[in-house]
Amino acid sequence: MAKHHISTTINGEPVEFLCETQQTLLDVLRDELGLTGSKEGCASGDCGACSVTVDGRLVCSCLVLGVEAEGHSVETIEGMADGENLHPLQQKFLEEAALQCGICTPGFLIAAKSLLEKNNNPTETEVRYWLAGNLCRCTGYDKIIRSVLDVAADMRSA
Q1: Per-domain boundaries in the chain
Q2: Which residue from 138, 76, 149, 64 is spatially nearest to 107, judged by alpha carbons?
Q3: Residuewise pLDDT in 10s, the chain (158 residues)
Q4: Quick one: which of 107, 152, 145, 151 has its CA closest to 129?
Q5: How many CB atoms neighbour CB 141 within 10 A?
Q6: What contacts 151, CB < 8 A, 6 or more positions away?
Q7: Does domain 3-79 match CATH 3.10.20.30?
Q8: Quick one: fold of 88-157?
């Protein structure tokens, strides 16, 4: 099968890769580029574990083809921290113990970051609605929601 040459930006860096037409963006990130932070939980867009942003839009990378990344900007969990400095959401998730097994955590973090970039003063209902596409089978959601609301408050006061 023929492979397509794709030029894109991932986490602020220009990237080129080869992929087959049917490869998902998730498969390309994990298998071709070694960016294994995004997880495959369902392969049908139902769990949010593979969440990334494409041109600032939150998407499930299991539902996007790798060839569709051509010319676009992709942000993954690997680009969230600034070197050794965790993003405030990552730090708060650790402090609040808003994670257990970690499969869903990258997707929740990317989705929460996307929300706070669009709305730095969300209500609890808005956070719950925004994160409704992300499923957790271990921790429940209260600590996750509290972490997002706390970071939003911290960002507004900074």
Answers
A1: 3-79, 88-157
A2: 76
A3: 789 999 999 999 999 999 999 999 999 999 999 999 999 999 999 999 999 999 999 999 999 999 999 999 999 999 999 999 999 999 999 999 999 899 999 999 999 999 999 999 999 999 999 999 999 988 789 999 999 999 999 999 98
A4: 145
A5: 16
A6: 88, 89, 92, 112, 116
A7: yes
A8: DNA polymerase; domain 1 (1.10.150)
- The angle subtended at Cα 32 by Cα 26 and Cα 36, nearest 5°, is 55
- Encoding tokens for residue 94? 């650790």
CB 71 within 8 A of CB 54: no
| Nearest alpha carbon to residue 29 among 15, 47, 48 | 15
Overall pTM > 0.90: yes
In sequence order, what DSSP letters do the residues of 46-93 get, joined into one string?
SS-TTEEEETTEEEETTSSBGGGGTT-EEE-GGGTSBTTB--HHHHHH
Contact 143, 131 (CB under 8 A): no
CB contact set of 51 (below 8 Å; sequence gap of 6+): 38, 58, 59, 60, 61, 106, 107, 108, 110, 111, 133, 134
Residue 31 identity: D
